[in-house]
Amino acid sequence: MADSLEPASFWTQANALLRKNLTFQKRNIKTNIRLISFPFILCLLLVLIQALVNNELDKPENKCGCRTFDQNGDGVEEKVCGLEYSDLDQGTWCAIRNPPEWPPLLQVPAQEYRAVESDVMQYADFPYESCRTTGSCPVTLLFTGNNQSLGEILIGNMFTSSASATLNSSDVLVALALNVSGSHSMPQTSNFLDPAFYSDLPIYNLQRQCTQDPTFSVPIQINSFERQQEIRCAQGLPLWRNSSAEINNVLYKGYRKGNPERKINEILGAYDFSNTNANNFNVSIWYNSTFKNDTGNVPIGLLRVPRSVNLASNAYLEFLKGPGTKIQFEFVKEMPKPENQLRLDFSSILGTLFFTWVVIQLFPVILTSLVYEKQQRLRIMMKMHGLGDGPYWLISYAYFLVVSLVYMLCFVVFGSLVGLKFFTLNDYSIQFVFYLIYVNLQIALAFLAAAMFSNVKTATVIGYICVFGTGLLGGFLFQFFVEDTSFPRGWIIVLELYPGFSLYRGLYEFAQYSFNGNYLGTDGMKWSNLSDGKNGMKEVMIIMVVEWLLLLFVAYYVDQIASSGNRKSPLYFLQNLRKKKRSASMRVPSLQKQGSNKVLVDMEKPDVIQEREKVEQLLLEPNTSHAIVCDNLKKVYPGKDGNPDKFAVKGLSLSLPRGECFGMLGPNGAGKTSFINMMIGLTKPSAGAAFVQGLDIQNHMDEIYTSMGPALGDPYRKGTSLILWQTQESQRSRLDTSEFFIRLQAVEESLKSVNLYNGGVGDKQAGKYSGGMKRRLSVAISLIGDPKVVYMDEPSTGLDPASRNSLWTVVKKAKKERAIILTTHSMEEAEVLCDRLGIFVDGSLQCIGNPKELKARYGGSYVFTMTTSSGHEQEVESLVRRLSPSANKIYHLSGTQKFELPKHEVRIADVFQAVQNAKSRFTVFAWGLADTTLEDVFIKVARGAQAFNVLS
């Protein structure tokens, strides 16, 4: 095997790719500004919302009341704030050294929610629904136990018979404590005073039977305030149920949450006196939990539960000791507290959702960058010019990591500068570790996802769906599960295996700690908080580290299998192990015949058969000087939508020594580009084998790339493109593109050779080059680094004559040291550059040889043309038949006729003499005699092959 080029060193390749990426960033400064502006805008939006909220919270009604007066009699007025100068709303924010007392209340259902008979509650002992329109519905209380008669006694002891006299007494609060009272007002998290005493809602007094004057007002004195409080009678309706299970069923059907308005049937409460008797008191109590939050554990307010327990205790005491025996429940009150101010940090309230979008939006950016290189075949182009997988992964990963860290640094710094508590209260070291781990996981995930996409637009759409979908699912689904303590913790961990939910959970923990720290005036999350069992940050970090390492390994493995069109076997690493065990002398056995199931076609020409036999002989030799050997190479594209399979290449056998330029001629769609794509590893052969420098293209492409130089694509043909960084986004200039490959391998002279070094085009974007300039740049890149095998797919298309001649000079000089396969539609170019030609039609090689041989073989005739008036056309044809009886008319239009004259039947002198004689008899407007051109040969062979295929 001939010596191949040694690849550039690892660090040379890494340096080249790093410079390319840095140049990319330099030329995409506007895109980077737009990317970074997104978190800036969100942070500014949160600052604006916070300012509006703070402005609202700074209003007097949200602060403790104040008054300005001369407090000491010295004529100096001072501002004094306190509870005595505040109304009931302002009193919530005042310092309260001696909190007021208020009677214990029950949570009584509002009139419109009280239980009635309906399609949901089909119980005959419930009142009719018509009571809601009259406002006379009783308050239902359920009870059960082992002894119904005892239960009826106990439940009857809970209600008073009449309360009008006591409630009209001088001390109304004491009277309310002695009676059974309640309210349907919503309790609060912190109560300066129960809302029932300063809202416009009534207080209900529960009695066995409401008598006259069921509604009246009484004055209530609270500190320095006095207000009229409406008192309403509410009839208590105790109902027996046979079991606690039946009570559960009734309570479930009547629960307010999750029911349409007309279906709500709230119950005051329920008691199960299961084993209660004269010697034992055992009771279970159900209470109205309407005002708990949706997780079912953390109350929105202080639930009115103690009074329910006190009623059961007093009822049992009265049963044992008789009327008048009770435990007096006089009052409840809050703990003393200092003055406080409402704090709402909107960066913590909204930050989890917003910041999830901010962080995860890097995912589609990285993903589209990787898919773009794949779609435009830039990755494989870099491999063809010597870039190994190791440097590519190292620099690409490090590049995206640095970009991500700079992005996150800007995000955190800007959020801190504008004063968002989300950043300033939580320990920065925890934030750094969390973001560092996540961006590494995100990059690994992007590398893995890039293997699943081949189109940038599709990857972009899916990427941004993931961005917004993750945020919305996290905010409206995942967070609900996290806050619900009844939801299994194991399933939370399962959900956190999705990286987006891991990010959301971490940001949620930051938000919770910053919100509580801001509200309570304490610090946010510290490292010591990670040991808290309720803090999910520790488990999230562990999950992300494990996933990062696992996904990185899987991404690299998948990339090795599917990094190009020539896919590797999933067990390729076993093949690599076997290769390492082989000796150096065993690196060429791939040149042995593969047994590719050849089927010789009867219509194959002798020159094609001879080439096939030559390939078979080369396959038997242990070493060869031939740079390229193709053995019955085939490519079949499976049919779709009921169409038959497309045979792009039908068993091509070809050998190409060094120092030869082989030209592939053929009509569009003949299979030339498919053949080259197989040879450079873009697509995998369907059958057959091919060897470059003695290496099999299906197993050793990485080694083959070190000795290959491709110049591919047609800028004028739909569906193809030059493999250059030419998009508006990348904005790479001619020098940027070529210098990248030069750093991988060698030499500046290639640019001068194709006239791209001077003329003021060095800083012009490659995407804005003309088609011809792109062609020359592609050819220059293909020759960099002295490759031993070069593929040129229509290299001179779109070039002006001067540039084409310059390019031809470069190719003629280059072919002295290497093997070149060139496809072209220019017969002139084929004759000038190619040592041998092969005409390719419908996937098959129809003939092969040097240009002179082909013209001699397929063009053994002269072409005679004569133009006369229409009246002399017959005389012209008679003249030609006398010169050559076997002449064939190939063209006839308006007096112009063209004939093929076999060379063995004609002497050129006789043709001149015959024309001279004809001119004496009639007018000859024009005439000509030409030898067969290569274009004539191409047309003749192509038409013949296509006609044969149609008949077949």
TrEMBL record:
- Could you list the residue ranges that cross the membrane? 35-53, 349-372, 392-420, 432-454, 461-482, 540-558
Q: Which compartments does it reside in?
A: Membrane
Q: Which Gene3D superfamilies match?
A: P-loop containing nucleotide triphosphate hydrolases
Q: Which GO terms describe its molecular function?
A: ABC-type transporter activity; ATP binding; ATP hydrolysis activity; lipid transporter activity
The signal sequence is: none
Q: Could you tell me the keywords of this UniProt record?
A: ATP-binding, Membrane, Nucleotide-binding, Transmembrane, Transmembrane helix
Q: Tell me the InterPro entries matching this sequence.
A: AAA+_ATPase, ABC2_TM, ABC_transporter-like_ATP-bd, ABC_transporter-like_CS, ABCA, P-loop_NTPase
* Domain of life of the native organism: Eukaryota
Give a Gene Ontology cellular component term annotated to this protein. membrane
ABC transporter domain sequence ranges = 628-867
**SUPFAM superfamilies to which the protein is assigned, alphabetical:** P-loop containing nucleoside triphosphate hydrolases
Q: How does it sit in the membrane?
A: Multi-pass membrane protein
Q: Which PANTHER family match?
A: ABC TRANSPORTER A FAMILY MEMBER 3-RELATED (PTHR19229:SF154), ATP-BINDING CASSETTE TRANSPORTER SUBFAMILY A ABCA (PTHR19229)
Q: Which family does it belong to?
A: Belongs to the ABC transporter superfamily. ABCA family. CPR flippase (TC 3.A.1.211) subfamily.
> Under which name does UniProt file this protein?
ABC transporter domain-containing protein
Q: Which organism is it from?
A: Ficus carica (Common fig)
